[in-house]
């Protein structure tokens, strides 16, 4: 069974003698099949002699005012079962005091990309993400960490931070795990009402249509309009943004694979998704 530990001291003791090749899978708990895929990918990457640590920490700093920190789903017993099924050695569920000891501040270098896409709607979110991941890296000292492509902006920003560390931490990116109808798996999907869940597939459907029309030569405005057209089959989905950008969030040139990204709300539940996209080169 995956060993459940809480304090940093318990974590260090549990890691003693396990392996020198450490993989960290940072999560906020409420594990599902998407997390299971991340853990399994990490285990495969480090091999039978590696050690996979899953952190289970709902980080209060990355929730803004009026967000869902208090009601964010938590089920440590179920998390341990999923972590075990996927092959994790340790499930580490630290307290806030373990991750943020004392009053030690951490200066996070500002980045203009903190303020676009997700950051525009959630001020301070990415500074908080970079800080908590840095702190998790400092405690666990992994060789590699696993992140999913669903949170693509997070993946890019964390990857760049990880490269700058001494020694650097490798980042393993795992494709988005999807439900039977294409909806990206998310811990927040449990908030959806039955009516909202029935139409939520329109989000990935719309992205697929955007990718399709791009392959036929559509420009960015036409791509966005096609996405909107698909979403507007229901009045239960409110689009927050649709963007077509390069993988480093700049203008996407034809002939280069970038990303189409979306954020949308169904009632009070906010969902994000993205897919690779290629703008057709003009002949």
From TrEMBL:
EC number(s) from the headed UniProt entry: 6.3.2.1
Catalytic activity from the UniProt record: (R)-pantoate + beta-alanine + ATP = (R)-pantothenate + AMP + diphosphate + H(+)
Annotated keywords: ATP-binding, Ligase, Nucleotide-binding, Pantothenate biosynthesis
GO function terms (MF aspect): ATP binding; pantoate-beta-alanine ligase activity
Annotated metabolic or biological route of this protein: Cofactor biosynthesis; (R)-pantothenate biosynthesis; (R)-pantothenate from (R)-pantoate and beta-alanine: step 1/1
Alphabetized InterPro entries for the sequence: Pantoate_ligase, Pantoate_ligase_C, Rossmann-like_a/b/a_fold
EC main group: ligase
GO biological process: pantothenate biosynthetic process
A Pfam family matched in the record: Pantoate_ligase
A GO CC term assigned to this protein in UniProt: cytosol
Annotated family: Belongs to the pantothenate synthetase family.
Name the UniProt record assigns to this protein: pantoate--beta-alanine ligase (AMP-forming)
Organism, as annotated: freshwater metagenome
Lineage: unclassified sequences, metagenomes, ecological metagenomes
């Amino acid at each position: 069974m995956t060993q459940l530990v809480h304090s940093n001291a318990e974590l260090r003791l549990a890691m003693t003698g396990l392996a020198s090749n450490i993989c960290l899978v940072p999560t906020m708990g409420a594990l599902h099949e998407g997390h299971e895929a991340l853990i399994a990918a990490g285990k495969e990457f480090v091999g039978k002699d590696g050690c996979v640590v899953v952190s289970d920490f709902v980080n209060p700093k990355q929730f803004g005012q009026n967000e869902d920190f208090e009601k964010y789903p938590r089920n440590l017993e179920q998390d341990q079962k999923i972590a075990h099924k996927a092959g994790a050695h340790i499930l580490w569920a630290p307290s806030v005091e373990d991750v943020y000891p004392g009053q030690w501040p951490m200066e996070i270098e500002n980045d203009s990309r903190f303020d676009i896409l997700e950051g525009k709607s959630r001020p301070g979110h990415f500074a908080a993400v970079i800080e908590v991941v840095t702190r998790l890296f400092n405690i666990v000292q992994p060789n590699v960490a696993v992140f999913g492509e669903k949170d693509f902006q997070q993946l890019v920003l964390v990857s760049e931070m990880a490269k700058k560390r001494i020694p650097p931490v490798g980042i393993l990116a795992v494709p988005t795990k999807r439900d039977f109808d294409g909806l990206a798996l998310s811990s927040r999907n449990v908030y959806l009402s039955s009516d909202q869940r029935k139409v939520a597939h329109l989000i990935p459907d719309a992205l697929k249509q955007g990718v399709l029309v791009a392959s036929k030569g559509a420009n960015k405005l036409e791509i966005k309009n096609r996405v909107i057209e698909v979403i507007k089959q229901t009045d239960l989905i409110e689009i927050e943004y649709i963007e077509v950008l390069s993988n480093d969030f700049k203008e996407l040139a034809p002939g280069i694979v970038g990303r189409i990204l979306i954020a949308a709300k169904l009632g009070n539940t906010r969902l994000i998704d993205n897919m690779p996209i290629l703008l057709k080169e003009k002949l």
